[in-house]
Amino acid sequence: MLGKLLGAVTGDAGRIEPEALGERFQEAILPGETVLAAFRTIRDGFALTDWRLVLVDRQGLTGSKTELVSIPYRSILRFSLEAGGTLDMDEELKVWDRAGDAPLSFSFRRGGGAAALAHRILSERVRG
Predict the structure, then answer these.
(1) d(CA 6, CA 88)
(2) Class of CATH domain 2-127
(3) Count of CB atoms within 10 A of residue 61's CB?
(4) How far apart are CA 41 and CA 20, in angstroms?
(5) How many of the other CB atoms lie within 10 Å of CB of 65?
(6) Quick one: residue 104, left, alpha or beta (phi over 0 = left, psi -120 to 50 = alpha)?
(7) Per-residue pLDDT tens digits of the chain, which is 128 residues long
(8) C-alpha R_g of the chain
(9) 106 CB burial (10 A radius; 0-12, 13-18, 19+)
């Protein structure tokens, strides 16, 4: 319970049902595309489908403006999972793609299994 509360305050990602990412995300999923897992922070989120990584970036004060970014698995160059240490309360997944120098970074609550799941799905999908 405390971990969920702290995650909500710090913005750490947790696993959710894909529908919770919103209507715009649902509209972006193609016929025949399967969402393997979805994750959300306070406002933003991302999903791993059988074809791509989809980022949901809510913008503005109300979060009504939404940007969807699709990264095909073939564009991912590398990724890493940093597990939390003794005093760390989070785990961090970083993804580097062909488009930029800086990695995309996702912070997860430690011990929930969401970071390991996202890492496993990326491993399976990037491998081909």
Answers:
(1) 12
(2) mainly beta
(3) 6
(4) 11
(5) 11
(6) beta
(7) 334 433 444 455 788 999 988 888 899 999 999 999 999 876 789 999 999 999 988 777 666 788 899 999 999 999 999 986 666 678 889 999 998 778 998 888 877 889 899 999 999 999 86
(8) 14
(9) buried
The CA distance from 90 to 99, in Å, is 27
Hey, how many other C-beta atoms are within 10 angstroms of the C-beta on 13?
26
Which residue, 114, 116, 103, 119, is CA-closest to 12? 114
Full-model pTM: 0.81
Burial pattern 24-53, b for ≥16 Cβ within 10 A else e, equals: ebeebbeeeeebbbbbbbeebbbbbbebbb
Nearest to 96 by CA among 79, 111, 115, 117: 79
Between strands 90-97 and 14-16, the pairing is: unpaired
Please give the sequence-ordered ranges of beta strands (E in DSSP) within 1-128, or none if there are none.
14-16, 35-40, 45-49, 52-59, 65-72, 76-82, 90-97, 104-109
